[in-house]
Amino acid sequence: MTAPSRKAAGWEAIRKDAASLVPPPFLRDYDAERAAFTWEAARAELDGLPDGGLNIAHEAVDRHASGPLADRDALRFVRADGEVEALTYSELARRVGLFASVLRELGVARGERVFSLLGRRPELYAAALGTLKAGSVFCPLFSAFGPDPIRQRLLIGGGRVLVTTRTLYRKRVASIRHDLPELRHVLLVDADGSPEPDTLDLTVLLDAARPVPEAVHTRPDEDALLHFTSGTTGTPKGAQHVHEAVVAHWATGRYALDLHPEDVYWCTADPGWVTGTSYGIIAPLVHGVTAVVDEEELDVDRWYRILAGQHVTVWYTAPTALRMLMKAGAERAAAHDLSALRFIASVGEPLNPEAVVWGRDVLGLPVHDNWWQTETGGIMIANYAAMDIRPGSMGRPLPGVEAAVLLRGADDAPVLRDGEAVPVGAGEVGELALRPGWPSMFRGYLGEDERYRRCFAGGWYLTGDLASRDEDGYFWFVGRGNDVIKSSGHLIGPFEVESALMEHPAVAEAGVIGVPDPVAGETVKAFVELRAGAQAGEDLRLEIIGFARKRLGAAVAPRAVEFVDALPHTRSGKVLRRLLKARELGLPEGDLSTLEARP
Ligand code: AMP
């Protein structure tokens, strides 16, 4: 089928045409629907289980597999060679039931944690949902992590099971296995009859299993997912999410992503991060739509081929990816029929207004930015399909979500008056905060109650982001209130990188910051003070970069290393990253020397 080029016809005309073909968007009257919305009503849209139980796997898969959607494609995997492997809801349910059965046979208990270290392949999806079905807790790891981040997260999470491939096991896990006494089983998805020592062949276990018919009747507030995220200091934080998060995944899938029953939906995020789980697995399946999964990494022509060939209607992607498409040039898009697309959304980093406009001009649709973070478990602020976009703005809060911008004191903490936080006026910058109570809110940082408590003040959850709100209630992202780095959409804790660098024998101390990058948003840069006797030079610089890559993985390791005679410190002796950043950017240093970033 050749559709008219959106560009040639003008996108407004095409949209008008399309309006007769596509269902009307949700949230047409923002204020009225927001006023009428309740989380209870959203929950009533789901099935639930006897005795008030709620299980994500039941809502996402089982109820569809036993209903009219049984034969519909749930997941379509696009292989490296372009071949597509589709799993219907009933086939996915079978595989999910088999994985749950394997866990049961291995004696993995309800609440115990099952980790994955896998690329986007069918086994990952069956493992995630099978773990939830069995009442255990699923924790995805980014498959580009090196051994250090993997070990740390498995240790903090007390991982009982790890599902991975032979190659990843050999390269990243075998060497740290002795440090992980709680890790009882490593399941290889591609053992091919000959697993590595101390691992099990998952295929053999699945062949011997009989699908578990029904999901465990988990309580809505029972742990379901563990997602690691990074702070400025200390170890990675394991944000705990519960089964009732699925209510928010359903509601945000409807309002922020505008999912309708016939949609073919593509979320480009890696399931090793929260977006890839909440919106790459749960939200589309809860809505019973077909989700496309690309098994490969970003490739401009491949992506356009997938959008066109799979007739993707709703596309959820990220600014770094959009910037890479923009860089490749509009003509690469023009070669494809993208007429099936009707809604594009983006998350994870600031979406530059040019990307919104580029979407409109080149893809025929503007890009709708939305905002959330690991701790919120789901989209909190969004530009909606039915409303005008304000390019550069993150949009307005979802129904059921109350957001505010709070005044910060000299110590960067919110100012409290009579125990109440103080909102700033329209257009002023403060800390973005959310009123607790939405279902996908994290319920703790695993084993770190104090760190969790510090995220709340005056009745608000503090996001750590700086923002402003305009007169019309649109929120605008200003920056991070702490030192964490966002590179290609991945949140990187500078402390984790500094710690790895300091294990190199020549490194006395390191300070790590994000430096602006036109495509990745930020890249990681390390300032390194050498030990006495070490020779600064190109050889050592490359050696340190290689050392960090081996330990942390290429996505986390610094791209640049600069040697300095002495690192600046706060009064309490912490490396003053903000000063390093100010110097790097040529900004005035002001009174930064006394500031200490919040964790
Ligand atoms: P993560 O927890 O890894 O998902 O990262 C969440 C952080 O990414 C947020 O706290 C923001 O700093 C940033 N972020 C997410 N979405 C947006 C957005 N639409 N605009 C700007 N920054 C964003």
UniProtKB/TrEMBL annotation:
Gene3D superfamilies the UniProt entry points to: 3.30.300.30, N-terminal domain of ligase-like
- Tell me which residues make up the AMP-binding enzyme C-terminal domain: 496-574
Query: For this UniProt entry, which residues form the secretion signal?
Result: none
The UniProt entry, under InterPro entries, shows: AMP-bd_C (IPR025110), AMP-bd_C_sf (IPR045851), AMP-binding_CS (IPR020845), AMP-dep_synth/lig_dom (IPR000873), ANL_N_sf (IPR042099)
Name any one GO molecular function.
acetate-CoA ligase activity
Keywords per UniProt: Acetylation, ATP-binding, Ligase, Nucleotide-binding
Task: List each copy of the AMP-dependent synthetase/ligase domain by range.
Answer: 69-446
Q: Which domain of life is it from?
A: Bacteria
Q: Which SUPFAM superfamilies match?
A: Acetyl-CoA synthetase-like (SSF56801)
Q: Which PROSITE patterns match?
A: AMP_BINDING (PS00455)
Q: Which Enzyme Commission number(s) are listed?
A: 6.2.1.1
Please give the Pfam families that the UniProt record associates with this protein.
AMP-binding (PF00501), AMP-binding_C (PF13193)
Per its record, how is this protein called by name?
acetate--CoA ligase
